[in-house]
Each structure stands twice: as C-alpha cells, then as structure tokens.
Fold this sequence. Notes:
By secondary structure, the protein is of the alpha+beta class. It contains 14 helices and 12 strands.
Amino acid sequence: MVKRSDIQARAAMMRVRFEAAGGQVVDPPLLQPAGTLLDLYGEDIRARAYVTTDALRGEQMMRPDFTVPVVQMHMRDGAEPARYTYSGEVFRRQEHDPDRSNEYVQVGYEVFDRDDPAAADAEVFSLFALQLRGLSLRAATGDIGILIAAVQGLKTTERRKAALMRHLWRPRRFRALLDRFAGRTPVPASREALLASENPMGFDTPMIGKRKAAEIEARIEALREDADTGPISDTEMVGLDSLLAVRETMPFALEQLRDVAVDLPQISPALDRLEARIAALAARGVNVHDLDFEAAYGRTSMEYYDGFVFGFYAERRPDLPPIATGGRYDALTRQLGNGTEIPAVGGVLRPDLMLEIEEGAQ
C-alpha cells in the first residue's frame, strides 16, 4: 500500500524538476467557481465533480483539475512567455468504479509560448518522459487538430459541421452523425413524418416544458434545411474513415496521413505542424521511430485539447488509468481569455500510480 507521505514526497521531487526546467510554482484554490467549468463542459461535469454552494460566491466545485484555473490565472495577469508547475490534490466523483480514487495528487507543467509551438510540444513531452523513465510505460500520441481541420473543411453546411464539432469527443455520436450526413443511415420514420406535415405545429395540445413555440418552429425549419442538403461525398467519407484508422509510429503515420490529404486537402497545414513536431521531438532525443501515433487518440477523455495529445500507460497494469496525460489547448486560452489567446501545452502526472507500479515491480 502506497503511503500518502511517500506520494507527497515524490510529488515534491517531481515539481522541483519542473522548476529546474523553468516552471513557476502556482497553487490554485481548492474551491473553483462552478460557472466556468459548467460553461466549458456543460452539465456533464456535475457527474464527475463535487459541488457545493457558498452564500457569497455561489456554486463552487472542488478542484477537478489544475489546467483550467492555471489558464484563467495566466490569461488574467500572466507574462509571456510563461511556464508553470504545480502539485496538489484534485477531486473526482466515482459513481461506477469504487476502486478508483476520488481524491489524488497531480503534478503538472504548463507552457504558454507563441514563438515555436512544435518546440513547446516537444519540451513538455520529453520532460514527462524523463520523469517517467524506468517505469516501462507505453507512450501514445495523437493530434486532435488533424480531425478538427478535416471536419471544418468538409464541403457541407456550417450547421452540419458545427454538429460534428460538438460531438468530436463522443466517437459513437460523431460516427452516427457522420453516417447520417453521408446518407448511409435512413432518416427515422418519426422525422420523415414530421417533415412531411404541412403544419407540424397545428395541434391543440397545451405547450409543456421550457421550449417556446418559436424555438420549436426554428428547429423544424433547420431539420427541413438539413433534409434538403446533399450528402457528404464518398470521397470525403473515405478520407475521414482512412484518417480515423491511422495507427502507426510517428513517421509512418505522417506518410499515411499525407496520402489521406489527397482526399482531404484541408488537413495539410495540420500535417505540416505534425511534421515540425516530429523534428522537434527528435531534436530533444525522443526516438520518434518507436513512438506510437493514433489519429483517433484522445477523443474520449481530453475534451479541451485541440492539437497534440499524449498519454503514458502501464500495459502490464491495464486496471490503472493513464499515469500521465497532456496536450495542446490553444482554444481553451481563447475561451478563458476575454478576447485574447496564446498557444499553450501542458499535462499532468500521477505520482501515486508511479509508486504503485514501482512497488509492484519490487
């Protein structure tokens, strides 16, 4: 059994290493305003966070992670460029798995730098790899920005692209929408009947619920416009299917994605960024020829990342969550920056899991 004092000692040692790399120590409050987190994640966050209320400050959440408060702090009064490090407890409700911790320590490192995003990506990844050296972990990488570019460049309506973007991190829902927009799945009979009706609002039943009649009519009109829109082309669908299937080491993945760009030329700038990142990682001493890259990686658990993503896993302990995760979150700085933004990348490590792996090996 790993002792709490050992976890704290390991966290302090790791934070000192990040300080040596230039990280300024920060310590966001344990209680965070719920409004910001709800705006970012919607009501789903309530199922994962501890929520309380304060007479003066309103609804509060026990700190579910460090990244959001660190971004808020930097966008409010941080200098540029900046590097931050931290260690402390985060809190997550566990309603389905009693064996997973609902309170644990995170150690993190975040970089805000406009000059060279590829170099910043490589800096964070290589520092994490050094912290985890000797643990026999598998590193996985990806780039959500490639899929975002593919969706945003589709030859279809803005409404459809917005729907796909909204569900990018929900693979099943994303696939269902994609198949529907491509005409691969039939329109539900209930929707066909609704759209075929000359006056779908012509009923005497009283209105119940929060939606007003005008909102319902607008939704029906949007469904009619969508029904009149042609399907996403077979060429683009083949490209998307091929993109999502890419799973190779980094250099070979880039080659495959360059082939995909023949059908989806809009991803070429994102591939240029991937190529620059590969070069920056190699310059940092990372063996990119053995580093896994999955184009679909990070889509189920990394909701605020919009570019490079990575994780480290103990394959001999599939019962454990990732030992470390991170990635690029430029869009998050825009959401929290009140009109300003800055390229940013970072991640977190779990010292408790590191110690558990070491204890098991002994």
